[in-house]
Amino acid sequence: MAIAPKEAENAIGMEEIHTERKESPKGQKTFTVEEAVETIGFGRFHIMLFLIMGSTVVHLFPKVAEAMEIMLIAVVSPLIRCEWQLQDWQVALVTTMVFFGYMVFSIVLGLLADRYGRWKILLLSFLWAAYFSLLTSFAPSYIWFVFLRAMVGGGVSGHAQGLIIKTEFLPTKYRGYMLPLSQVFWLAGSLLIIGLASVVNPTIGWRWLIRIASIPGILLILLFKFIPESARYNVSMGNMGAALATLQRIARMNGAAMPEGVLREPAKERRGRFKDLIHPKYLRTTLQIWIIWLGIAFAYYGVILASAELLERDIVCGSAAPPVQDSGDDSEESHSPCHCHFFGPAAYQTMIISTAGEIALNPLNILGINLLGRRLSLCITMACTALFFLLLNICTSSAGMVGFLFMLRALVSANFNTIYIYTAEVYPTTMRALGMGTSGSLCRVGAMVAPFISQVLMNASFIGALCLFSSVCVVCAISAVTLPIETKGRALQQAK
Fold first, then answer.
1. pTM of the full predicted structure?
2. Among positive and negative, which fits the CA dihedral 379, 34, 114, 18?
3. Three-state SS annotation for the chain
4. pLDDT tens readout for residues 121-163
5. Closest by Cα among 303, 324, 301 to 312
6. β-bridge partners, 432
7. Could you give the CA distance from residue 428 to residue 166 in angstroms, rounded to a whole number?
8. How far apart are CA 234 and CA 452, in angstroms?
């Protein structure tokens, strides 16, 4: 039964008197945030939170927004290549700079989130990304375009705080099921941007595509009032009143009872510091997580960009055939040395089919995460990813190529699902955002390299590029299965 606010304040005050010993008055029942979350259980609040943080309709929310920003590069690349007569390395640099911005700001925003709250940083990152994305549509030159997209990447890096908020409010047994379902929202964003591109690019151009994709994100502020700050974060900061109020609100929404007693304040600890990640207790875990994040991002964005490159240049059986214009245009641009070749309806259709693969293995991925555990599940999907990269080298029909791309997108998506969950679970509250931030930053190192493999090396040595992608996935599979901690069924840790 929930306690009255006045009683809560008195109880909290009594606890503060005992901050040194952290003991409750004799006979007084107490509970932690973890116990409250488990007691309240899953309900209306969690469904609302996932809809707000996801959305399957428009680009208003973290998962959809991030997916749209990433896919935007893939569908705009052929157009800016033609407009500014860019070489391969210049096109690749656009994507690399997006991830450079992500890498730089990911650590900074992770530190700030552990110190000032997940909610504030999430809101700031969304407004930031939407603002600079809109500015990109007015870029007068290639240099300005690259700079502004790098700033967009910096804003997108803060979206990871949305996952942390969701993780910290979910009961243990639901994390392995609900977090992978967020992939539905990523898929929605990816399909939406491809659909928009197929209509907008051939008519009013890529600049209007970016404007249309950016404007809804600005409206996100209207829904942020429904997103609470993490109760675990408030407790870790000693803000017991706010944490208790949040938990009581969730209990009311879910129609559940609060645990009996008063909310217990944990021992005071320093906020997350970088040296905590490399403390002997977490050193091996951190290093292996970084390797996995780097490799997964390298494979994931490599698949996306390689798909666009294969479609743009009609690469079949490992050789680059002369570009074929879907529209039959025989203009000077179509024969330029910069491979000016616009996507036609067939190319967009192929992109939609391969992108839909991101949800194909979700049921199996959820089953594997919850039955086999995070480590073994990730090892299996990474090993399969390595295999399908090699299968891309098989001389096959267009349908066969689409099938391989479909499976690759399904597998790399499953990899990301699992490592996101594992990273959010393995670190304690005081350093969870920093752990996600540094992992996301290392992840972008892989993403920064991927464009040069998919858009430059692949044209010089198709099999060489595929073998490199496959080898990295094998290393990640080994790192995954040898992780020292299995987080399946494990409560979120509050303190180090």
1. 0.68
2. negative
3. CCCCHHHHHHHHHHHHHCCCCCCCCCCCCEECHHHHHHHHCCCHHHHHHHHHCCCCCCCCCHHHHHHHHHHHHHHHHHHHHHHCCCCHHHHHHHHHHHHHHHHHHHHHHHHHHHHHCHHHHHHHHHHHHHHHHHHHCCCCCHHHHHHHHHHHHHHHHHHHHHHHHHHHHCCHHHHHHHHHHCHHHHHHHHHHHHHHHHHHCCCCCHHHHHHHHHHHHHHHHHCHHHCCCCHHHHHHCCCHHHHHHHHHHHHHHHCCCCCCCEECCCCCCCCCCHHHHCCCCCHHHHHHHHHHHHHHHHHHHHHHHHHHHHHHHCCECCECCCCCCCCCCCCHHHHCCCCCCCCCHHHHHHHHHHHHHHHHCHHHHHHHHHHCCHHHHHHHHHHHHHHHHHHCCCCCCHHHHHHHHHHHHHHHHHHHHHHHHHHHHHCCHHHHHHHHHHHHHHHHHHHHHHHHHHHHHHHHCHHHHHHHHHHHHHHHHHHHHCCCCCCCCCCCCCCC
4. 888 888 888 888 889 999 999 999 999 988 988 888 777 777 7
5. 324
6. none
7. 15
8. 43
Q: Which residue is associated with the tokens 């597998």?
A: 411
Side chain identity at residue 214, one-letter code: S
Residue for token pair 């294969």: 310
Out of 10-14, 217-221, 252-256, 459-463, least confident range? 10-14
**Type of residue at 473:** C
> What average pLDDT does the chain have?
77
CA distances for 190 relative to 72, 110, 141, 213, angstroms = 9, 25, 26, 11
Across 242-251, 280-289, 331-340, 352-361, least confident range: 331-340
- Mean pLDDT across the stretch 416-425? 87
- Residues 436 and 107: their CA atoms lie apart, in Å, by 8
Based on its alpha-carbon atoms, the radius of gyration of the chain, rounded to whole angstroms, reads: 24
Out of 47-61, 210-224, 255-269, which region has the weakest mean confidence (pLDDT)? 47-61
Q: Which residues pair with 263 in a beta bridge?
A: 31
Ramachandran quadrant class, 314 (left: phi over 0; alpha: psi -120 to 50; beta: rest) = left
Distance of CA 91 to the CA centre of its chain: 23
What tokens appear for 36 in the block? 């409250």
